[in-house]
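Quick check before the chapter quiz. The format below is the same one you will see on the exam, so make sure you can read both the input and the output lines.
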Amino acid sequence: MADTKQDVLDMLRELAELVILDEGDPQSFRVRAYESASYGVEAFAGDLAKLSVKEIEKIPGVGKSTAAKILELVEKGKVQKLEDLRAKHPAGVVALMRIPGLGPKAIRRLRDELGVASIDDLKTVVAEHRLRDLRGFGKKSEEKLAATIARMEERGSASRTPISVALPLAERVVAHLSEVRGVTHVSYAGSLRRFCETIGDVDVIVAAEEAAPVMETFVGMNVVDRVLGSGESKTSVVTRRGTQIDLRVVGHHQLGAARLYFTGSKGSNAPTARPTDRRARRTASTGSCRGSAIASARRAFPSRSS
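Here is the expected output.
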């Protein structure tokens, strides 16, 4: 039930985001309709999968057209209107909305007149000083946008996911994988567990008897757009909103080292991972050494993201 509800919320929020791009107006009727419906669905305590279209229409904020889309998602697993909008406005274009001061109308002009379809395209246009000649911009706007992009790159936020998006996504994955038979632990790690403002990749660690059922369940989630790679202990996917999720399945005896290693940044792990580091502190409760634990983790999990 919880997964169906979250699927519907994801669908409504993505529809609202893509309609903003499509119509160039954050306050359009359709945008407000999807936003209103998402509030109603979020507050709804029943099982959406068991409702008829007439019953869905009784949820506060949900109109006839939106109710039909919710039922379509429940019955078919996808909504044609959303698929059409995704094809029209790919992830690279949606990412442009992360840039402060760049609204949907400006993005449409950039796309129509200069062929800008991603942040990299925008950087090229700005570097070539082609933006200043575009209607509604000018030299000052170009310089301001260049400074904004530079700040975003310095902070790494241009290609990163806000925690407001990454945290609910990670919590959903954790809840879903917790139901797999043989799983004894699921948690998110990395920069998300450190509660950074923006997230590169979402790291999820699972302790389980067998990896295969966990991987199969993971790649079958509705949030997954494509699989980047899958092995015995690690699978990486990209969601429909462009966020990468790295799943690692470890043995129960490896869980502590894995959580420690994949939660710390590369900078914090590197010095403590050296076997010769005499400052590693022994914990009284477990008798284990943090430095040696990370050194072991580096050998067991050679590949990781920052």
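If your answer matched, good. The first strand starts at residue 161 and ends at 162.
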